[in-house]
């Protein structure tokens, strides 16, 4: 491997040394910015791509929210344009019900697999983790590059599926057979896209695990790792262990669709008044087991990196050590393990027996305990603090109550009896969005504001940051809060309009309110976009250690860090959050003694 | 805000007409109380810290970890409460509901529901109480045989009653619904009876419940009467149309000269708006045609959003009469 290397004496690392030796070639433009093997460039590529996908996924949702508030009326501005994609009526410009299903399936897929995970793991993990552990790069830089390009191909395949015969996939992000098996060709594209995305994640996760195990700086024992690194470490294991079953399942569904197998197809299906050609003998529920065996751990893949980010920012801006660091670490490890044995709580309505459901109810209650512990640790960390209310901290603090709402509302869904009423209603949509949007997305914003000075050497505007924070927080709650009430009344999800139903009519006013919230949320992102691009070029210059932080990326690496990251090998002397140590001259003690440049 | 003015919105659980539903509701309510208490506890501590420990207010942050007994107490309390919810409520409620099918001596009424894109086929056994075999080879919506019954060859099928989207049920008598699907997975959900069960092709899954004695669709409709305002000329009638969809006028709506604009029991729609405006009628009273609706809660294809059925609840004697009448009608009843 040809990763560039400044002065490696091989001294800073224990364990095995990656094949980084060799002559240092300064790469050309393409090698430096496009097909780069530098974890920082790859991290930025991931971040920018994922942000674009988040915007795309959000725009889809704005179109859907318009339809929900104003069923059957022309989508403003772009209604006729969208008919090119086959999702609106050519004459009226209104979203069609097929179009709604396509956008719904693609919104879910894009947000999870092309937006949040790539940003949280591919972006933040890639950029920050090696810096925080004092590594010069990832263990396998080329694998890292490959992971990005496979991800991008998966994204392109997904988006291209809108031009497939019959349009994009419309069977939900869950793609349950037999529906998905009998769907038009967009579903095949979806499966191919998923196989690529999963492959990319697998490549990435192996790399993360090896890097964290083997490339830590001298003195950086596991118990001195920043919480963010721990979160990435557990996340990588979840990806590694949970994705293969879905990859297999994806290939099986692909075979059912194109090669005439019958893995998920029972006998005697009659679709559209005609017998189907599948021989039968398969099980539609098998897919659900394989899918949720991934998709529940995936929930923790969406949330753990967010918790990692929040932990860093809280420690930094409370100016005190994280309360209960060890407990936090054990809690996320425990979460990781438990997340593999709760998956069937998504399947209580499939006719599961009471013995099995008792098991899954019990594991689900158990897994809620570490989440409660994590939240409690974060909140207790505020006690006795000296809180700096900068933009990253505002977002990190907002994460706490938002995640609390998301987590708590999982309880009635985790008990099969209450789930009878709530399953597949808007209550579910409210629940998981509080986890992933006001929860994870808010934490990811916090992370962007926090590490931006490291990546660019410049600060983002605090004023625009606050102008971004408040409408985002308020907008998110306006969008998702009402969903609990719509759901508890009993309105089901994935409807083109709910106004044909009694219960839907009685809650339609909430739907309108929620759509107004989506507009607020959308407008609230304008200051962010201005701030992001404006600050790259015109932001105030930041010091190397812009936030007076303790961890290696701030104390040992310039901003932005050069190829190879550190000017001298850092030697770690203490834990990650030595803030306000009594008797020390400053209110923070760097994790290593390499002097600041 | 005209929406709010027109009817009393629903804020929480919808009314429940089943005998088991109160237990589900009770569980949901208790969990929400628990959630609210925990959230408020965190919230108070959180908010206090945010104010008390802001940068200016506190010259030095605390390095030593505090001995937070509170956290141990919270965690222990959470564990205890969750165990109680699980062991004292969730598991027994479910067990009672799922493991305890109606016994033959309770005279349960059995009916089959076969879901398909995008309709509910209802299959009653007819007077002989025996269900005819459903043969996939004979299924043909086009020929009026959506269930694939062999009316000529199968004696059990001769008197079977088949209906579309309207499930008539007696109140006060245990009901067993056996669910399956012809094509994809659907989910049979009746929120106002607290019933939900996926219908999976290739499987037959039963659910059972009893509707509270003394209720009926007619009685429920009376409780759901709402006033809908007629939009003034020039205003988009969208709200009016929404509020009237699947609703019926509860009385004859007459113009000044006594002509009936919308008859009692008819659904007002956009085309009535002009006449109503001309007659100077500002408000009309409507109620759901069939207040207890069947939802399909599993995404099942293009017009999933329209896969709606109705449960029509009848007092036992009325139901018997209706059933006999359907049986006498025989094949003629079959809807396309
Ligand atoms: C931030 C703005 C967002 C808004 C306004 C939004 C809104 C919605 C709404 C209204 C639905 C339900 C649609 C329906 O049932 O018909 C939905 C579904 C969904 N959303 Fe979001 N969402 C947002 C962000 C996210 C994020 C960040 C994620 C994931 C990380 C996400 C993942 C999903 C998934 C998986 C579904 C289910 C899709 C399906 O039914 O197959 N959403 N979203
Ligand atoms: Cu789950
Ligand atoms: Cu359906």
Can you give a write-up of this model?
The complex is a heterodimer of chains A (597) and B (336). Chain A has 597 residues and is mainly α. Chain A has 18 helices and two strands. Chain A has a two-stranded antiparallel ribbon. The N terminus of chain A is likely disordered. In chain B, the strands form four sheets. Chain B has a five-stranded mixed sheet with strand order 3-2-1-5-8, with no helix packed on it. In chain B, strands 4-15-14-6-7 form a five-stranded mixed sheet. Chain B has three domains: 78 residues; 151 residues, Cupredoxins -  blue copper proteins (Immunoglobulin-like); 64 residues, Molybdopterin biosynthesis moea protein, domain 2, CATH 3.90.105. The radius of gyration of chain B is 27 Å and the shape is globular. In chain B, a hairpin with a 4-residue loop joins strand 6 and strand 7. Chain B contains seven helices and 15 strands. Chain B has 336 residues and is α+β, with helices and mostly antiparallel strands. The N terminus and C terminus of chain B are likely disordered. Chains A and B meet through helix 4, strand 1, helix 9, helix 11 and helix 12 of A and helix 2, helix 3, strand 7, helix 5 and strand 14 of B. The site of one copper (II) ion has 5 residues of chain A, from helix 9.
């Amino acid at each position: 491997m040809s990763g560039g290397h400044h002065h490696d004496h091989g001294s800073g690392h224990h364990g095995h040394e990656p094949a980084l030796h060799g002559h240092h070639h300064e790469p050309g433009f393409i090698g430096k910015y496009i097909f780069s093997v530098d974890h920082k460039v790859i991290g930025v590529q991931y971040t920018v791509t994922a942000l674009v996908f988040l915007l795309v996924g959000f725009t889809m949702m704005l179109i859907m929210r318009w339809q929900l508030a104003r069923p059957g009326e022309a989508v403003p501005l772009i209604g006729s344009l969208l008919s090119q994609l086959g999702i609106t009526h050519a004459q009226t410009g209104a979203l069609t019900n097929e179009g709604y299903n396509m956008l719904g399936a693609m919104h879910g897929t894009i947000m999870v697999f092309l937006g949040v995970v790539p940003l949280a793991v591919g972006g933040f993990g890639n950029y920050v983790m090696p810096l925080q552990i004092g590594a010069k790069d990832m263990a396998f830089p080329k694998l890292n590059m490959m992971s990005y390009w496979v991800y991008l191909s998966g994204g392109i395949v997904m988006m291209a599926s809108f031009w497939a015969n019959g349009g994009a996939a419309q069977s939900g992000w869950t793609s349950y057979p037999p529906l998905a098996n009998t769907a038009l060709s967009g579903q095949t594209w979806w499966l191919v896209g998923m196989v690529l995305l999963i492959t990319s994640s697998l490549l990435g996760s192996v790399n993360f695990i090896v890097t964290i195990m083997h490339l830590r700086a001298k003195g950086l024992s596991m118990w001195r790792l920043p919480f963010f690194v721990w979160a990435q470490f557990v996340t990588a294991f979840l990806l590694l262990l949970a994705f293969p079953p879905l990859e297999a399942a994806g290939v099986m569904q692909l075979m059912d669709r194109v090669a005439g197998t019958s893995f998920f197809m029972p006998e005697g299906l009659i679709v559209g008044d005609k017998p189907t050609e599948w021989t039968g003998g398969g099980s539609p529920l098998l897919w659900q087991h394989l899918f949720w065996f991934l998709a529940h751990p995936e929930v923790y893949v969406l949330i753990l990196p967010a918790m990692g980010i929040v932990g860093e920012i809280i420690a930094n801006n409370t100016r005190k050590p994280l309360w209960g660091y060890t407990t936090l670490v054990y809690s996320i490890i425990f979460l990781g393990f438990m997340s593999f044995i709760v998956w069937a709580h998504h399947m209580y309505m499939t006719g599961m027996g009471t013995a099995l459901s008792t098991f899954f109810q019990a594991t689900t209650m158990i897994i809620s305990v570490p989440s409660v512990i994590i939240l409690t640790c974060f909140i207790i960390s505020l006690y006795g603090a000296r809180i700096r209310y900068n933009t990253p901290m505002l977002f990190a603090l907002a994460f706490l109550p938002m995640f609390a709402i998301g987590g708590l509302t999982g309880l009635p869904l985790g008990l099969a009896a209450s789930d009878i009423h709530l399953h597949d209603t808007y209550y579910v949509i409210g629940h998981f969005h509080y986890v992933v949007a006001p929860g994870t997305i808010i934490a990811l914003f916090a992370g962007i504001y926090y590490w931006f000075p490291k990546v660019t050497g410049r600060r983002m505007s605090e004023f625009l940051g606050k102008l971004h924070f408040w409408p985002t927080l308020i907008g998110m709650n306006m969008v998702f809060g009402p969903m609990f009430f719509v759901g508890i009344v009993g309105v089901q999800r994935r409807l083109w309009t709910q106004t044909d139903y009694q219960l839907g009519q009685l809650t339609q006013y909430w739907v309108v309110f929620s759509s107004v919230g989506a507009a607020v949320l959308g407008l609230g992102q304008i200051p962010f976009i201005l701030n992001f691009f404006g600050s790259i070029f015109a932001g105030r210059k930041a010091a190397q250690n812009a936030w007076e932080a303790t961890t290696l990326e701030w104390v040992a690496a310039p901003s932005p860090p050069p190829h190879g990251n550190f000017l001298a090998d850092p030697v770690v002397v203490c834990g990650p959050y030595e803030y306000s140590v009594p008797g020390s001259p400053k209110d923070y003690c760097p994790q290593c003694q390499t002097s600041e440049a | 805000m005209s929406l709010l003015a027109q009817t009393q919105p629903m804020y929480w659980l919808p009314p429940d007409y089943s005998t088991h539903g109160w237990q589900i509701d009770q569980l949901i309510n208790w969990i929400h109380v628990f959630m609210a208490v925990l959230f408020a506890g965190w919230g108070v501590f959180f908010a206090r810290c945010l104010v008390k420990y802001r940068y200016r207010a506190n010259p030095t942050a605390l390095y030593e970890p505090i001995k937070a007994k509170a956290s141990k107490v919270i965690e222990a309390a959470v564990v205890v409460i969750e165990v109680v919810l699980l062991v004292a409520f969730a598991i027994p409620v479910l067990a009672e509901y799922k493991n305890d099918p109606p016994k033959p001596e309770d005279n349960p009424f059995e009916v089959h529901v076969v879901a398909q894109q995008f309709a509910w086929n209802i299959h009653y056994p007819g007077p002989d109480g025996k269900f005819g075999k459903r043969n996939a080879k004979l299924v043909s919506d086009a020929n009026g045989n959506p269930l694939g019954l062999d009316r000529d060859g199968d004696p059990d099928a001769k008197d079977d009653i088949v209906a579309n989207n309207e499930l008539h049920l007696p109140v006060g008598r245990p009901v067993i619904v056996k669910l399956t699907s012809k094509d994809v997975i659907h989910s049979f959900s009746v929120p106002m009876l607290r019933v939900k069960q996926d219908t999976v092709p290739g499987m037959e899954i039963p659910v059972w419940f009893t509707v509270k004695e003394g209720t009926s669709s007619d009685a429920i409709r009376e409780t759901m009467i709402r006033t809908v305002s007629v939009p003034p000329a020039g205003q988009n009638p969208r709200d009016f149309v929404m509020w009237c969809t699947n609703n019926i006028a509860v009385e004859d709506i007459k113009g000044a000269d006594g002509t009936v604009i919308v008859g009692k029991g008819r659904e007002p729609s956009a085309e009535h708006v002009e006449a109503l405006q001309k007659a100077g009628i500002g408000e009309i009273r409507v109620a759901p045609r069939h207040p207890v609706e069947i939802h399909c809660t599993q995404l099942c294809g293009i017009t999933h959003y329209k896969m709606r059925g109705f449960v029509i609840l009848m007092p036992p004697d009325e139901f018997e009469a209706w059933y006999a009448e359907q049986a006498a009608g025989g094949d003629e009843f079959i809807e396309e």
